[in-house]
Write a structure and sequence with these properties.
The structure holds 2 protein chains of 2 kinds. Chain A has 1 helix and 9 strands. By secondary structure, chain A is α+β, with helices and mostly antiparallel strands. Chain A has one domain: Sandwich (Immunoglobulin-like). Chain B is mainly α. The chains are: A alpha+beta, B mainly alpha. At the A-B interface, α1, β6 and β7 of A face α3, α5 and α7 of B.
């Protein structure tokens, strides 16, 4: 019972720990392409990616390796939190326009 | 055309699999068809509403609205599935006996059915909203008839897999049937809880604990049909984070413990009732 209580307290404390300041990077979408298509971010810490969809159509920002999946409606922005990442390259894409919407994130 | 078929198929598949499981788990319950159809209808209406307000939802709560919404909806489904399983753990035996005895569907009351209606509605709503947004995007950019046809094909394909799963389930002998569906519902609930954790991480509200516990994408990728189906059915994840694994295990253990608790209580009550009847007046 006691262990359960501590577990609960820990779970409640987790969001606070996760909210510690996180740097932001913006990736725009225009004509179903990412701008920039390649972006460098620091490894080893949580970062925020702001997806700024400047097209009129919705896009699903997705990455298997970054573990994100987010629909960003036309002419609006969405934020996802990723990491802390190991150094390396992570590809992302727009699921609704996979042919053109391709990008890479470099954690260094 | 193929592109739109594939995307609509992916979205439909997840909802169709969940509906198939719900249909299986409520086998033999009178009026369940009506309740589940109601859930699908509610889900479709909800999907349209969510798609319409996607911009508002997405930008709500500092751009975290969509994740919070998804996590919330998933956790509601987890609670409803848990409730169903706990209820079944104390009623399943009687349910099967009555089904055998009467040879037709059994009245069980509206409570467990309303839980399954909610699960169905939530599954259709979540996947449906994505499909609606995608198709809207296609139409906005001057979608061709081919794209529409692709979408329709994807929808039919996804639904067909659900139907196959349902009829596959029906082949299980009645004696073991609810044990099997109970296990599937349990794993489904655990998997959905893990997905909810994933959304909360994406929203920046939970840490990953471990960024990647394992990577089995080389063996069984979640991009493939088998991986995707296993992801829905048992919560398979080719690259899980620590927190997703934690949510999975905690949900599994909690529901199992509740099932044991209520199952044992009903067995004791049944025994006590039998003893009373057997005793001389």
């Amino acid at each position: 019972m006691k262990a359960k209580k501590y577990g609960l307290a820990l779970l409640l404390a987790l969001p606070l720990a996760a909210m510690a300041e996180t740097p932001e990077y913006t990736i725009a979408i225009k004509e179903h392409r990412f701008n920039p298509a390649e972006i460098a971010v620091p490894a080893g810490k949580r970062i925020k990616l702001v997806i700024d969809n400047q097209d009129a159509t919705p896009e699903e920002f997705e990455s298997k390796t970054l573990r994100v999946e987010k629909i960003v409606p036309g002419n609006s922005k969405g934020t996802v939190t990723v990491g802390p990442l190991k150094p390396g390259s992570y590809s992302f894409f727009g699921e609704f326009h996979e042919a053109t919407a391709q990008g890479k994130l470099h954690a260094e | 055309m193929l592109g739109s078929a594939v995307i609509v198929f992916r979205e439909t598949l997840e909802a169709a699999l969940i509906v198939a499981i719900v249909m299986g788990a409520t086998r033999g319950v009178a009026l369940r068809g009506r309740w589940i159809a109601g859930g699908v209808a509610l889900g479709i209406v909800g999907a349209l509403v969510v798609a319409m307000f996607a911009g508002v939802i997405s930008e709500a709560v500092q751009g975290r609205g969509q994740e919070l919404f998804n996590a919330g909806v998933l956790l509601v489904a987890v609670a409803m599935l848990a409730w169903h399983n706990v209820w079944m753990s104390s009623h399943a035996r009687k349910h099967v006996e009555e089904m055998r005895h009467l040879g037709h569907d059994v009245q069980v009351g509206a409570k467990p059915l309303s839980a399954m209606l909610a699960v169905t509605a939530v599954a259709v709503l979540r996947e449906g909203a994505e499909t609606v947004l995608f198709l809207y995007g296609l139409m906005a950019t001057g979608g061709t008839a081919g794209l529409a046809l692709g979408g329709a094909l994807g929808l039919v394909g996804g639904a067909a897999v659900g139907v196959l799963l349902y009829f596959g389930l029906l082949r299980i002998p009645l004696r073991h049937f609810f044990t099997v569906t109970g296990v599937i519902v349990l794993l489904l609930a655990a998997g959905l809880a893990a997905s909810a954790a994933g959304f909360l991480v994406q929203a920046g509200l939970l840490p990953t604990l471990i960024e990647q516990v394992w990577d089995t994408s080389g063996i069984l990728s979640m991009d493939g049909l088998a991986g995707r189906m296993l992801h829905v059915l048992v919560g398979y994840n080719d690259r899980p984070t620590g927190i997703e694994l934690l949510f999975y295990v905690v949900t599994l253990v909690t529901i199992l413990a509740l099932m044991r608790l209520f199952g044992a209580r009903s067995t004791r009550a049944a025994r006590a009732a039998a003893a009373k009847e057997g005793a001389p007046a």
